[in-house]
């Protein structure tokens, strides 16, 4: 996407004889990291770039912020234009601004992320992308720009957020077993967790609500089905 037309000084700035041309102004982009649990793996949605720079390479969906839109609006627009995904809650994660991160010009990017059930998405390539696909966070292709660095940082932050937020529930259906919840934690952390300690800790938080229903898991006896209780979080 183009970076849009240059911004003219406001009437108030002109009245005070402010000259914006005195200062160099970098361009601003947004990148959107979409992650989901697929095939017992933490995967990220990537697009294949259609044009220079990094033509034919995989990248995080994103693009330039227009002069008349907010960062969040730009992130949602770019995500929809490049992947067809819309109506997704995005959270701002971090800003990357190394001077040489983009060969076109000085570009600062603001990264957004979302964790969600990929079954709810209808993904397609569009606009600047020639293809779109899901890739394992633990086996990524060669990426454009500094996107490998961005994804490494995102994974680090997501793992930290597991300790004090409820983001893991975004990756689960409305009703789930404790085994399914533990598996989400294990996939994100990329290591096994002790079953007894995990269940004791998660149940002590009070954020789970027993639905009264049960579900068969293999040859084991039926497992209780739980749901996330946002009211419990509000009371904390």
TrEMBL record:
Domain Nudix hydrolase stretches: 27-159
Annotated signal sequence range: none
Residue ranges of the region described as Disordered: 1-20
Presence of keyword Hydrolase: yes
Keyword set, alphabetical order: Hydrolase
Protein's UniProt keywords contain tRNA processing: no
Stored SUPFAM superfamilies: Nudix, Winged helix' DNA-binding domain
Regions crossing the membrane: none
GO MF term (any one): hydrolase activity
Family, as annotated: Belongs to the Nudix hydrolase family.
The protein, known as: NUDIX hydrolase
Organism: Thermogemmatispora tikiterensis
Lineage: Bacteria, Bacillati, Chloroflexota, Ktedonobacteria, Thermogemmatisporales
């Amino acid at each position: 996407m183009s970076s849009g037309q240059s911004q003219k000084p406001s009437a108030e700035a002109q009245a005070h004889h402010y000259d914006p041309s005195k200062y160099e102004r970098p361009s601003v982009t947004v990148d959107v990291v979409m992650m989901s649990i697929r095939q017992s793996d933490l995967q990220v949605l990537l697009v294949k770039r259609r044009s220079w720079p990094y033509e034919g390479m995989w990248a995080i969906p994103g693009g330039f912020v227009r002069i008349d839109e907010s960062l969040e609006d730009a992130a949602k627009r770019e995500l929809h234009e490049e992947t067809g995904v819309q109506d997704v809650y995005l959270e701002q994660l971090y800003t990357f601004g190394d001077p040489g991160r983009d060969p076109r010009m000085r570009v600062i990017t603001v990264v957004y992320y979302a964790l969600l059930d990929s079954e709810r998405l209808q993904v397609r390539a569009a606009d600047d992308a020639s293809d779109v696909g899901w890739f394992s966070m633990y086996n990524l292709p060669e990426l454009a720009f500094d996107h490998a660095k961005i994804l490494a940082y995102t994974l680090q932050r997501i793992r930290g957020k597991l300790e004090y937020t409820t983001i893991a529930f975004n990756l689960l259906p409305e009703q789930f077993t404790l085994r399914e919840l533990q598996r989400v934690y294990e996939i994100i952390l990329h290591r096994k967790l002790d079953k007894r300690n995990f269940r004791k800790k998660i149940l002590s938080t009070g954020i789970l609500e027993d639905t009264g229903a049960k579900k068969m898991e293999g040859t084991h006896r039926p497992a209780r089905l739980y749901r996330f209780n946002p009211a419990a979080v509000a009371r904390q």
